[in-house]
Design brief:
By secondary structure, the protein is an alpha+beta fold. The chain has helices at about 15-30, 70-75, 80-85, and strands spanning about 1-10, 35-45, 60-65, 90-100. Helix content is about 30%, strand content about 35%.
């Protein structure tokens, strides 16, 4: 069973420059860990403001792992911890959605 790990960041400084900086750090520190089968990070798409659209974030991270064990190992890596250390001061809120998904 695959594991989807989706994270939505609301920033204290939500400027385009700070949003872009967080996306860059996602790619530098979080991409390429063992067990990852897909990785994407980016900024909220503008112009999607229907009643069902959540617009309370600036940056999103989407990772699919081969299994739950790979996800759990990723959480404790030095690169993941460095990413948090470098960026957490600008996080107003962080929402994490983990799901088991079928192949």
């Amino acid at each position: 069973m695959l594991h989807a790990h989706n994270v939505f960041f609301t920033l204290n400084d939500s400027s385009p420059a700070q949003s872009a900086s967080l996306v860059r750090d996602c790619y530098e520190y979080l991409k390429g860990h063992d067990g990852m089968v897909a990785f994407f990070a980016g900024t909220r798409a503008e112009g999607y403001e229907r009643d069902v659209n959540d617009v309370q974030f600036q940056v999103s991270l989407h990772v699919v792992f081969a299994d739950h064990k790979s996800h759990d190992a990723y959480q404790t890596t030095a690169r993941h911890k460095e990413f948090i250390s470098r960026n957490k001061a600008n996080w107003k809120t962080v929402r994490v959605f983990d799901s088991s998904i079928e192949k």
